[in-house]
Each structure stands twice: as C-alpha cells, then as structure tokens.
Specification:
By secondary structure, this protein is an alpha+beta fold. The protein contains 14 helices and 23 strands. The strands form 7 sheets. A 7-stranded mixed sheet has the order 3-9-10-16-13-12-11. The chain has a 5-stranded mixed sheet with strand order 20-19-21-22-23, sandwiched between helices. A 3-stranded antiparallel sheet has the order 5-4-6. Bound molecules: adenosine-5'-triphosphate. Adenosine-5'-triphosphate binds next to β10, β13, β16 and α10.
Length: 471
C-alpha cells in the first residue's frame, strides 16, 4: 500500500476573530502513526476493506467492514446529536442525490466547480496544479501542460436515452438539496431565523488525484448544515460555528495540539464564499482539511430564486422586513472525521501482561461515544459450567441497553489475547466472567486505557457500565 504525499498547506495568518482561547489550539504536533500499520489494522480487524478487492480493487474506493460500519454510524449519530438534537434551532433533511440539472447550473457548479488540471508531457500523469510544490511532474520531473479547469461533477443520464436532455449529476455536496428545500422546510416547521437545516449523505467528486487512504476519495459521505441568519449577523455566527465545530472534535478526544483553524485567502475562496475557515488536522503527511466552515452570504438562495422564479426570501414579522437570509455552512467529511479519530486514537505502548512480562500493545483510544464495540463479554474459558452464565451476562447487558451500542461476545483464544484484540479495536470496557462468578455472582470490568480491573455484582453491571461509558 503506498501513500501519495500532498504538500502541507501553508498556515495563513490566524483569522483575527478566532478568540484567544482557541489560538492555543494552533500548535504544530504531527500524528506520528505509521499509516501502513493503521491500514493493515483496519483490514485485519474489519474496519475498512479495499472495494471490489476480489477483482483487483477499484482505486481509492473503500468499503467499511463490520467495525467500520459501527464506527461510521456512531460518528454520524454523535454529530447529529450535537448539532440537531441538542439544539433547538436546527432541523434535519434527507434530500435526493439526483436533482434537476438546473440546480447545478444555478449554484455555479456547472461553470465553476473545477480544479486546475495539469498533465505531464512525458509520463502523462495528471495532477492538481494547486497541490504541487513545484511546477514539474512529481512522478518523473517532466514538463507540465498549461492548467485547464476540470469539472469534478460525475455526469450520468436519467432514463433510457443518453443525450444532453437527460444529463444529470451525482451531487458533489448535499448543500444544494437544502437550499432548494428552504421554503418547504420554512413553511412546514415555521422556524424563525436564525435556524439551520442539517443533512448527512453521500457526495461524489471526480477528483483528479486521490489518496492517503480514505482521506481523498471520489465517493464519500458528508455532514452538512446550512445555518440561515439575518444579514449583518453572519460574521458573528461564523465565529460561533467554528468554535462549536472544533468543540465536537475535541469533545470526542481529538488532540487539541493537532488541530488548527486556517482562514482561506481571497484567491482560495470558492465562488460562493464571503469567508471560509478550514479546520485542519496534523496528519502524518502534513496538515489536511477535515472540515470547512463557509460564510456563503446570500449567494445560493438568491441564485436559486432567480433561476427558478420562486422567491426564497424571508419575512421577519418582528421588524416587518423582507430579505434573503445569509448562510453559514459547516461542512465535514464523515470519512475524514473517521480517519482523524483513527489516527488520533492509534497508540502503541509497553504494557505488563497477566504473567508479569512486559509486552507492547496496540490500542485505539477511541472515545466511548464512537467506539465500534462498547463492551466485550469474555468468559474466562469455554468451560461448560461457565458458558451459560457468560451468555446470561451477555444477554443482560445487551437487553438493558446500558452500553448504548454494539456489545460483543468473544470466547476465542486466551483471555490475554482477547484483551489485546479488544484494545486494538478500541473497546473501552471488557467484562470477564470467571469461575468465581458462579459463586459470588460478580464479574470483572477491565478498562482499556488504564487496564484497571474492578469486581462488580452482575446485578449492578448495567448501571456500572453506563456510568463508565458516560453514555
Ligand atoms: P479539498 O480542498 O480537500 O479538496 P474542499 O475544500 O473541496 O476539500 P469542501 O468542498 O469544503 O472540500 O468539502 C467539505 C468537506 O468534505 C471537506 O472538509 C472534507 O472533509 C470533505 N471532502 C471533500 N472532498 C472530499 C473527498 N474527495 N474525499 C473525502 N472527503 C472529502
């Protein structure tokens, strides 16, 4: 497995409106994880597989295995909980991937959703000009062609006839589904400004170059929120959203010193944006964007109102004014968030074994809220006296819902190996059922990070687990 290096982005002067306390966050500390080890762990343990592997694989497309599917679901649930359920000013939406092609003309994507493509005159490899450090081919040093704008939208055809009239696009973002439903949501929910609409779903971009595992792919998932505000309040809300979004990553345990906020300079700004701040993480290959927070002003609603002939204005019944709202858009990749959590959680350390020897162990220090397996139930052995009680404990933990997630029963191999396996997949708590359990009706809870063990009564297990998982 090889990784393409993308040049580290330049840290532009810190955006002046980021509050002092968050400036502390802007410190260089590189995640030193060996990516090959992480990719191999992901495959071995069932987090992420190469797509279509038995056919030789399709480049830069990935499938999430049993544990990856749990992790991804937990990440999306956590985001939804924080930004929809825990607020009273955001509602959800689930719009379609295929939309009327006029949507993409009005939004500017047909004309402007492009990256500068250059081709090597020697080896004919293609590159994104804005990602090159020097103006020569990174593969062979050959001379490059002039850049041309390459549109990133995937085209397809609706219905049986493949002609210009049937062209449709796979959405490159979910935002436009939100803008064209602005009026529907407003009328059906009677929300007042400021309020937001959140959506999670697949997006597709025909990227010129992909790479760094799941960091840049052509099919990915995105968690987006369009927050509508009165003009004049946009800059304040922009700041608040940058802070709230940073808080989501740090709240789930991402190292503050590996996060920074970078403001786009004018040349980098997208066609719709008044200002954009990227949240970046210090990956082993350099800083990489994990989320953009854009102030899109009134660009989108105005563009769709004009192109569709439908007014997308807002009437403020307090001030008796009619205006087009401004929009703040936090937009985060699910896969990039997942990669961030994995890279940040990956830890190798020396640890004592049960026999007193010191061995190195690998663990994923994933926050319990997103860990794919919350609790593993481990009978000390497959002894026939032990199994019924262990199964009963397993059923009780699952049935109580105390773990608020996936609970695993694992009885293969020695208990030491099973602890290591659960450490490696990030399971915060293991529950061991041993021969004493038959008499004292108690089990041992083992903590992944401290390896501390405590004995608790089986009757108290659901509440003990709930308290330790903070779920
Ligand atoms: P980049 O500069 O890395 O191409 P972008 O600025 O085009 O990204 P946005 O349009 O702001 O990205 O998209 C919002 C978020 O969607 C990004 O912060 C990232 O997390 C995610 N994302 C964008 N493109 C991809 C991709 N090709 N693969 C995986 N995630 C992506």
């Amino acid at each position: 497995m090889s990784f393409r290096l993308i040049p580290g982005s330049q840290l532009s002067p810190e955006y002046p409106s980021i509050p002092e306390k968050d400036k502390e966050i802007v410190v260089d500390s590189v995640a030193s994880v060996d990516l090959e080890k992480l990719v191999s762990l992901c495959k071995r343990r069932g987090f992420i597989f190469q797509s279509s592997e038995i056919y030789g694989g399709l480049s830069s497309t990935w499938d999430y295995g049993p544990l990856g599917a749990e992790l991804k679901r937990n990440i999306k649930d956590s985001w939804w909980r924080k930004f929809v359920w825990e607020r009273d000013d955001v509602v959800g939406l689930d719009s379609s991937i295929l939309m009327h092609p006029d949507v993409w003309r009005a939004s500017g994507h047909v004309d402007s959703f492009t990256d500068p493509l250059v081709e090597c005159k020697e080896c004919h490899q293609r590159w994104r000009e804005d990602q090159l450090e020097e103006r020569v081919c990174p593969a062979c040093g050959g001379e490059l062609t002039e850049a041309r704008n390459f549109n990133l939208m995937f085209k397809t055809f609706i219905g049986p006839v493949e002609n210009d009239a049937s062209v449709a696009y796979l959405r490159p973002e979910t935002a436009q589904g939100i803008f064209v439903n602005f009026e529907n949501v407003l009328n059906s929910t009677r929300k007042k400004l400021p309020f937001g609409i959140a959506q999670i779903g697949k997006a597709f971009r025909n990227e010129i170059t992909t790479g760094n595992f799941i960091f840049r792919t052509r099919e990915f998932e995105i968690m987006e929120l369009e927050f509508f505000v009165a003009p004049g309040q946009d800059e304040d809300w922009h700041k608040r959203w940058v802070e709230d979004c940073l808080g989501w990553y740090t709240g789930l345990g991402v190292s503050k010193e590996r996060l920074r906020v970078r403001a786009h300079d004018t040349a980098e700004l997208a066609h719709y944006a008044k200002a954009t701040h990227d949240i970046e993480y210090s990956f082993p290959w350099g800083w990489g964007e994990i989320q953009g927070i854009a102030n899109r002003a009134d660009f989108d609603l105005k563009a769709h109102a004009e192109a569709s002939g439908t007014s997308l204005d807002y009437y403020d019944d307090q001030t008796k004014e009619r205006f087009t709202p401004y929009v703040i858009e936090p937009s985060a990749g699910v896969d990039r968030a997942l990669m961030t959590f994995l890279v940040d959680a990956y830890t190798e350390e020396e640890a004592p074994t049960a026999s007193g020897k010191v061995e190195s162990r690998v663990l994923l220090k994933l926050h319990p809220e997103i860990a794919p397996v919350k609790v593993a139930i481990l009978p000390l052995s497959r002894n026939e006296k032990l199994v019924p009680l262990a199964r009963e404990v397993y059923d009780r933990v699952r049935g109580s819902g105390a773990a608020k997630g996936y609970v695993q029963y694992d009885d293969a191999q020695s208990i030491g190996r099973r602890y290591r396996r659960q450490d490696e997949i990030g399971t915060p708590l293991c529950v061991t059922v041993d021969f004493d359990s038959l008499d004292d009706k108690a089990v041992t809870i083992r903590d992944r990070d401290t390896m501390e063990q405590v004995r608790v009564a089986i009757d108290d297990l659901p509440s003990e687990l709930g308290a330790r998982l903070h779920v």
